[in-house]
Amino acid sequence: MFKNKIATKLITAFAGFVILCVLFLGVLFINIFASNHIRYRTESLMKAAKQISVMNEVTNNDSKKLLSENRLIEFLDYSADARIWIVDRNMDITVRSSGDLYDHAQMGNCLLPQNDIEFMQGVLSGNDMVSYANTAFYDLPMLSVGVPVYSNGEIIGAVLLHTSIKSLREPIRQTTLYLIMAILFSTVVIIIMGSFFAISFTRPLKIMKEVAGKMTGGDYSVKTNITKNDEIGDLANSMDVLAKRLAEAKSETERLEQLRQDFVANVSHEFRTPLTVIKGNIETLADTEIDDKQAFYSNIQKEVNALEKLVSDLLDLSRIESGRLELNIEKVDVKSVISDVVRSISPLAMQKNITIDTTGITQAIPPIYSDYYRLRQVLIIFLSNSIKYSDSNKKISIKADVTDFLTIRIKDNGFGISKEDLPYVWDRFFKSDKMRADSDSTGLGLAIAKNIVNLLGGEVTIQSELNVGSEIQITLPLGGIKMTSA
User: Fold this and answer.
1) Closest Cα to residue 442, out of 391, 384, 376?
2) How far is residue 238's CA from residue 244's CA, in Å, rounded to a whole number?
3) CB count, 10 Å around CB of 339?
4) Tens digits of per-residue pLDDT, 217-228?
5) What is the DSSP letter of 292?
6) Edge to edge, what strands does the sheet with 92-96 contain?
7) DSSP helix/strand/coil, 384
8) What is the sign, positive or negative, of the torsion defined by CA atoms of 246, 247, 252, 257?
9) How would DSSP label each residue in 311-371?
10) Distances in Å between the alpha carbon of 193 and those of 189, 197, 230?
11) pLDDT single digits (tens) 367-405
12) Please, how many CA atoms are within 13 Å of residue 407, restricted to the half-sphere of its CB?
């Protein structure tokens, strides 16, 4: 427990605070108790003294006769719990109680001690007196009270009651002892209970410390599993959420790093092939006397064009993925876009005698809000792929219809894509077997097309079967309503 600094501090602070409070209240209680006890004892003695004074007056000051009654003497000793003196006008002690220095038979007139004369003078002057001092007779700290005795309206003597101050302090001493025992017991109980609550309070903090240590070491799979409904529970829940998000961030970082490595490797590979061809042709031209150099120049031109297209695609993809691709959203006539694309792609289709069928386009297609150039770019990418990866004398159909959104379908009877490759067609630098044989393919076209469709607020899906053909479906909102990307 002593290694748990917070728990130790909590226990020490809690126990110290409670003990100080108990001590303060204890001292306050003892002072109040002592003051009240002495005041009560003084009032009791004063009351007893006045009763004796009255009794002495009733008996016509026949003090010896009064005290000769044993039962009355016992009553006085018991009720007053003090030593009783009755003195006359001359300050001579005429009677003492049975508990005094002399027994009853020996009690007679004796001279009052000189150091009590001043006290007696005050009583015989008609005052009720109280004194806390040593008396010469007992040589002890005594509480003394005195009241005058009257007879026919005249002071004929006095009644004095003495009790030891030590006897007054005994209840206070016992009370103090009990209080100290209570404080010690309370301290033990407080330490035990405080230890339990402090450890219970700091256990979640210790768990969170261990979790934080593991998170610092890169382990974000840890959880606190703390379900307290308080601030500590909120903190633990925040740590769990933080760990989860750090794990997701780590996973995303690793994914991006892998993508970066794959990207660098793919780009290096894509650049290496045309550069190797260019280098070979240039070295041949430089080292060999060739009459017909045009073929070599054509090869170089072809590879330079391929490099230019690769760089252009890379720039487009980079702008799209970084969010820097600017869109010019305007009212677009979809039929005009499709007609423009078919007109531009027709020369490529004619080389393979491929027919592009647009009869499936609904006549009443309302304008949509989109980017004319980017929509055209997407359609050219999909149509050019359909033409390049279809045999000659085939047909490609384009259909377009409108429900709650615009749907464009491009279907071919080309080579198709295998089920194994289909999940990866949208990846950068993806190439199927047929695409690998095509030196003009960069493997970026489908990735670019999909990202553009997503930016336009739509989605794109593909269905394909090897040696049967493929169908691309593009769905776009009519009024710029964003849809979830596929």
Assistant:
1) 384
2) 10
3) 13
4) 888 788 887 877
5) -
6) 110-111, 92-96, 83-88, 154-164, 141-151, 129-134
7) helix
8) positive
9) HHHHHHHHHHHHT------EEE-HHHHHHHHHHHHHHHHHHTT-EEEEEEE-S----EEE-
10) 6, 6, 21
11) 888 889 889 989 988 998 899 888 898 999 999 988 888
12) 12
Q: CA-CA distance, 113 to 120, in Å (whole number)?
A: 10
Angle at which helix 5-58 crosses helix 165-216, to 10 degrees, equals: 170
Q: Is the pTM of this model over 0.90?
A: no
Give the Cβ contact number of residue 8 at 10 Å.
15
For residue 270, the cross-strand partners are none
Length of the chain: 486
Q: What is the DSSP letter of 108?
A: -
Domains of the chain as residue ranges with CATH: 5-170 (3.30.450.20), 326-477 (3.30.565.10)
- Distance (Å, rounded) from C-alpha 143 to C-alpha 38? 9
CA-CA distance, 481 to 477, in Å (whole number)?
5
Four-residue CA torsion sign, 13, 16, 17, 18: positive
